[in-house]
Amino acid sequence: MADMAEINKRFDIHEMANAKRAEIEKYVCNIYCCHSTGCKSSGSDDLIALIHSILNEKGLSERVRVVATGCMGLCAQGPLIRVEIKGKKDVLFKRVDLEITKAVMEDYVLKALDTQGEFTPPENLSEHILSLDLPFFKKQEKVVLKNAGHIDPEDIKEYMAHGGYLALEKALKTMTPAEVVEEIKKSGLRGRGGGGFSTGMKWELAAKVPTVDEKFIICNGDEGDPGAYMDRSILEGDPHAVIEGMMIAAYAIGATSGWFYVRAEYPLAVERLQKAIQACKKNRLLGNNIMGTDFCFNVDIRLGAGAFVCGEETALIHSIEGARGTPRPRPPYPTNKGLWGKPSCVNNVETLANVSKILLKGADWFASFGTETSKGTKVFALTGQVEHSGLIEVPMGTTISQIVNEIGGGVPQGKKLKAVQTGGPSGGVIPAQYMDMPVCYEELKKVGSIMGSGGMIVIDDSSDMVSLAKFYLDFTVDESCGKCAPCRIGGKQMLTLLDKINRGRGKQKDLDLLKQIAFAMQKASLCGLGQTAPNPVLSTLRFYENEYTQKLLDAPKEDK
User: Fold this and answer.
1) Helices 349-361 and 166-174: crossing angle, nearest 10°?
2) What is the pLDDT of residue 165?
3) Distances in Å between the alpha carbon of 37 and those of 69, 239, 380?
4) What is the pLDDT at residue 557?
5) What pLDDT is stored for residue 555 in this prediction?
6) Residues in contact with 114: Cβ distance below 8 Å, sequence separation at least 6, in sequence order
7) 167 vs 116, 143, 418, CA distance in Å?
8) CATH number of 27-132
9) Residues whose CB is less than 8 angstroms from the CB of residue 383 and which lie 6 or more positions away in sequence, other chains included
10) β-pairing, 417-422 with 344-348?
11) Nearest CA among 113, 105, 114, 32 for reference residue 67
12) Partner of 346 for a Cys bridge, out of 188, 199, 313, 376, CB 3.0 to 4.6 A?
């Protein structure tokens, strides 16, 4: 039987990365096709098949590489195809169908391959070309999304060719667990799932808990905010980055097993995560004696059934155990008593996706982005009434105006910006007069909103803020687990009052009662769902109370 050194030599990540880079370098042209959920739903599978068919017919499969990638960002413009030909400027094609794909191949790719120097796409394709010099692309800073849209997420060798698993190797072979924890603490990385708690501090607390027999690391992929798809896109476009981050976290805290908790409504993310885990096992990156060290670790996946409350870590843990997903009081915190009563550390998808970059480039590099208290970058799903909606990543501290007006291209159809809603149904609305406010944990809190997982919805001046508040409260009332009375009863009472006001049947005392119940929910609810559910109502009352009072004035006289 071969010894351990020989076994590990067969799966040397440096050799695999070099071999993949050499393979890629042979191609004259790379065609990247967005293969995320959004573009797949618009037919990108058929487009990729057509491209392969044309290349095979022309005998060009050895010169042109076709890559099915994760999200490229400009989701509303999909399906997207980016063509990179050596010696020529990259070209990005938008809203591509079968007819346009055929034209891209025949009128641009095939002719450009046989043309020396620059070759401009013909006029018939001009309306389908997106400039890569758009602020949408130029104003971003990609850390977590660095690989998304540039690699095949189902090929572990491509991930390695872009530096994948070098951070894990560095941690296992040159750092102690305590040194890893200290580096993450020094970086200033905070949880990207909503609470913003120091990741390094959470790891330190988990590491200090003695391991009796098992300790767990859990990845929270139960993204449930309306309009949010950051975690889904990361898992679809770069699943190995999250796995590597989880493995480093496990080494740092002494975990023996890992669990991915992902929404069942994300089938593509789950499929790619499963393939990534299988590839890791095949290449001895999961299991026993990883990379020839004493580190042993395995992971598994649990599917969430779409309960918003299971984004709360104790409800999530109950769900993994097979119980009803309801929160429990804390303390004890999961770091002391979590999954099956064992010490457990819960981190969000985006949080873990940052980890390998921090270890490779250093805590100081990561901390060079952002503000004094909010370090690094943040991924947002920019949606709503904005010209360029999609997935973006910017340094913490970037102003709302820069995000909406520069990266997003502003509000379309000549309408004016009224507000931006952040933090999903648990967040608040931020009026247009605060658009120069930097986006970071503390500043958002000052105006009654939160970072959340990264949803950012742009609202124009045609929107009714009372109806908006009712929409979000309706969602949280429906998603309440019903365990505690403040959330179960208070939320329903608030929704009844909002509905009454919205129908023009409200009275002034109803506004006072709304605030009274909201404050009671914030103070007495068991978990974050109930504590933050009143935020949309309170923030719209704070900044747009005139819209509430107008509905009171419009009420029939006999109801006043």
Assistant:
1) 70
2) 97
3) 11, 14, 17
4) 57
5) 64
6) none
7) 41, 14, 44
8) 3.40.30.10
9) 227, 389, 455, 456, 457, 458
10) unpaired
11) 32
12) 313
**Position 335, amino acid:** T
Strands ordered across the beta sheet of 455-460:
390-395, 377-384, 455-460, 417-422, 428-431
Judge residue 133's burial from the number of C-beta atoms within 10 Å of its C-beta, 0-12 exposed, 13-18 middle, 19 or more buried: exposed
Half-sphere exposure of 420 (CA within 13 A, CB side): 32
Cβ-count burial of 385 within 10 angstroms (0-12 exposed, 13-18 middle, 19+ buried)?
A: buried
Phi first, then psi: give them for residue 210, nearest 5 degrees: -60, 140
Other CB atoms within 10 A of residue 415 CB: 13
Residue 508's φ and ψ, nearest 5 degrees, are -60, -35
Q: Dihedral angle at the C-alpha atoms of 156, 240, 424, 543, nearest 10 degrees?
A: -100
In this predicted structure, what is the pLDDT of residue 227?
A: 81
pLDDT of residue 1: 36
Please say whether the beta carbons of 431 and 417 come within 8 A: no
Question: Please, which residues bridge with residue 84 across strands?
Answer: 30
**How many Å apart are CA 44 and CA 21, to the nearest integer?**
26
* Dist. CA 111–CA 120, nearest whole Å: 10
Per-residue pLDDT at 262: 97
Domain formed by 156-367, architecture: 3-Layer(aba) Sandwich (3.40)
Q: Is 442 helix (H, G, I), strand (E, B) or coil?
A: helix
CB 420 within 8 Å of CB 429: yes
Positive or negative CA dihedral for 455, 461, 462, 468? Answer: positive
CA distance 288 to 276: 17
pLDDT for the residue 2: 42
3-state secondary structure (DSSP) of residue 460? strand
pLDDT given at position 4: 45
CA-closest candidate to residue 252, choices 192, 193, 185, 332 = 185
Fold of 465-559: de novo design (two linked rop proteins) (1.20.1440)
d(CA 447, CA 428): 8
Alpha-carbon gap, residue 197 to 188, rounded angstroms: 10
| CA pair distance 511, 501, nearest whole angstrom | 9
Give the containing element (helix H, strand E) for 288.
none
Pairing of strands 257-263, 298-304: parallel
| Spans of all domains in the chain | 27-132, 156-367, 377-460, 465-559
Q: Which two tokens stand for residue 485?
A: 């009375």
User: In the CATH scheme, what is the code of domain 377-460?
Assistant: 3.10.20.600
